[in-house]
Each structure stands twice: as C-alpha cells, then as structure tokens.
Design goal:
1 helix, 3-stranded antiparallel sheet, flat, 10-stranded antiparallel sheet, 6% helix, mainly beta, 2 domains
Length: 196
C-alpha cells in the first residue's frame, strides 16, 4: 500500500468518466421469483481518464505519469487519487453520540447515501450540534477516523467539513502512450479503480 499521490497534470481532458459498481448475486427459483444477495456493502468506483497531451520536455509531464505507473508496477500497488470533483464535503454528518463511542468514521454523502472516507487530506473541521469543536478530538488521516476525548454526549450530532483522497489502483497492466508530435504524447485510456 502506497501513500504516493497520483500526479495532477494539465493535459487531462474534461471527458472524465466515473462509474459505481456493485456485485449482486441473483438466484432465480423454479417459479421465476428472484432472491438477490448484495455481496458488497459499498461500491467499487471506476475512473477513465484521458490525457490529450503530455509534454516530454522540462515540464516532465510524460515522465511523471509514466514513472508513476512504472513505480506502481501497473495494477500491483495502490495509491491516492484526488478526484477534482469529488474530494470534499461540508457539514457532513459522521455520527451521533451515544455517550460511550469515542471514534467515528468520516463519510461522504450523496443524496441520502453515505459511504466511508478512508483517507483524509488534512485535519477536518469538526462540529458538535453545529458548534465548531476546535479541541477534544484527534484525527487519524490515514484511516479517516475522528476520536473524541471525552466522548460526545448522548444524541450530540457530529458533523465535519473534510477533504479526502480516494485509495485506488490502476485497472490495467499496460499503459499505451502515443507520440503524436515532437515531444508531445497522449494517453487515451488511464483507468483507475477504488480499493478498500
């Protein structure tokens, strides 16, 4: 597991594709009725990135991305990815105090659905019942958890403003870079998949 951060480069096109994948087993009975079993609690996320140009000059864009891919050995090692459009939330509920629980997993919400955030970019801003709480807690950035001392009171709503990385790996073992002009390259398909 690497904490290297995927490089941010100017040649990334706006045609970024992001998709969510669940794994469901469906068993059909003799009467045609179905039993559905959800095999995963949270989805795997996929990104397809296209780089329309990577300069092979002093900017080192080509070498930066190619070197990053080589250092990960393709799909072997995971790393951190900053999705430019899905990397922060504000006023996100991360828990409700019960008088005994001290640690709370950070989360990101999407229209009534929430899933854990496992790697924080920086220390979050924490609120108890809407009031900023500057002390009395610590954050484990690598695990995306906040721990309180003392524990929050029963029914205290804990919210956070936080920014996060996605833990991902390459979804390919071959990266096909194409030289289309002198010192200019592209990468038409760079696919990433989330890991837990």
């Amino acid at each position: 597991m690497s904490n290297a951060v995927f490089p941010t480069l100017p040649g990334l096109t706006w045609d970024i594709k992001r998709s969510a994948e669940f794994k469901t087993t469906i068993v059909t009975g003799a009467d045609g009725g179905e039993t559905r079993i959800g095999n995963w609690v949270y989805p795997l996320w996929h990104w397809k990135l296209t780089y329309e140009f990577l300069r092979d000059d002093a900017t080192d864009e080509l070498r930066s991305l190619l070197g990053f891919f080589l250092a990960r050995s393709g799909r072997l090692d995971d790393f951190l990815f900053l999705d430019p459009d899905d990397c922060e939330v504000t006023d996100q509920v991360i828990g409700v105090g019960d008088g005994t629980t001290a640690a709370f997993q950070c989360a990101r919400g999407l229209g009534g659905y929430a899933e854990p955030v496992t790697v924080l970019r920086e220390k979050p801003v924490i609120y108890l019942d809407g009031v900023r709480c500057p002390t009395g807690w610590s954050a484990d950035l690598a695990a995306g958890r906040v721990t309180f001392a003392p524990v929050p009171a029963r029914s205290a709503v804990i919210t956070a403003d936080l920014s996060y990385y996605w833990r991902v790996r390459f979804n390919i073992d071959i990266a096909e870079f194409n030289q289309f002009a002198e010192k200019l390259w592209d990468l038409q398909e760079c696919t990433l998949v989330s890991v837990r």
